[in-house]
């Protein structure tokens, strides 16, 4: 064992000792507020503790309306005002019990989050992580390759931002239903997917990683996009929806206290706090104090931070980088386009067929959430046209007719107000189809029709 791994083992054992000597105290209070349940967490502190607490609450589908965070570096106390998905206070029972199990003294460590519902179990599937340049039809090509390689997609999440795409896809063998662990087969999957991602336009290197480890999907997507530098302002997406709901981020130093103060205002939405805390943690900043208020259409967050080295932000370049990274973290999950929900009997190749139909009709997927519940596929897609504009109602209806009116539903009223579409088949969709078919033919995945 080398010195580095030995040092990590010692640190980990020390953290476990501190945790046993000072177990976290969790209080669930339904009496102090008429509108929300108060969850108070007191515990010994380490870098990332705040993120792990927020992650547990978000994974339980709780909405955080207010949060008060305070830490002296060795100990922290967090108070969260939360409601359930229906806007109600939490009822005594399963949810409060799971909060105690995940955060209270019975939890082995905040670091042990496999009980969190957002963590995908490693033993059930193989995980594929993808990053690369986004383009119309990319998701269709990815799912087509996986289908032709006899892979069944059991779950996936796709984010796009600033012309970049990141995705975490969970696959099994389409015959056995078991994880794929054959090294030669995994190598071929990686090679072909990397070829798809690179295309002929990606100026950066596309990346494909295959693993059998447990993954928290949304946490990992933030890390992938941050590593891919989707916040880079030299590659800003200037599409028609790029300035919608732009967040306001201010970063200033508080010289007398030795902190950097981050103020953030934007339209409120689910999981906003998780997204911003993820970014600060990934950038190696420690949150010492924070106030979060999100009780109306707008959310306000204020953080007092220092870098893990103990110093506040020291340069204008670093200040700008924090601003750009927080803006990117907020906008990665901002849903552009019309929301389409697909619910129906799951089968191998379903995603390949559905995204092919999207591509043939000139639709571009900006975000996707793919889940399998028993034998049912429950998928959500956010789509725009190929130029990033709202999709015309006639196009949506044509797609629904092809996939199935009862299977694909529209969860957005905006599409019905779209201007009339010109008659005739989308020539752009046919272009995507012919390009994609030629591409897959070159890979040897389909036969040429000639």
Structure description:
InterPro entries: ACR1-12 (IPR040217), ACR2/9/10_N (IPR056816), ACT-like_dom_sf (IPR045865), ACT_dom (IPR002912). GO terms for molecular function: amino acid binding. This is ACT domain-containing protein ACR. With 450 residues, this protein is of the alpha+beta class. Among the domains are: 83 residues, Alpha-Beta Plaits, CATH 3.30.70.260; 216 residues, ACT domain (Alpha-Beta Plaits), CATH 3.30.70. 32% of the residues lie in helices and 30% in strands. It has 11 helices and 18 strands. It has an 8-stranded antiparallel β-sheet, covered by helices on one side. Helix 2 runs antiparallel to helix 7, helix 4 packs antiparallel against helix 5 and helix 7 packs antiparallel against helix 8. The longest helix is centred in the first third of the chain and has 19 residues. The chain is globular. The N and C termini lie far apart (59 Å).
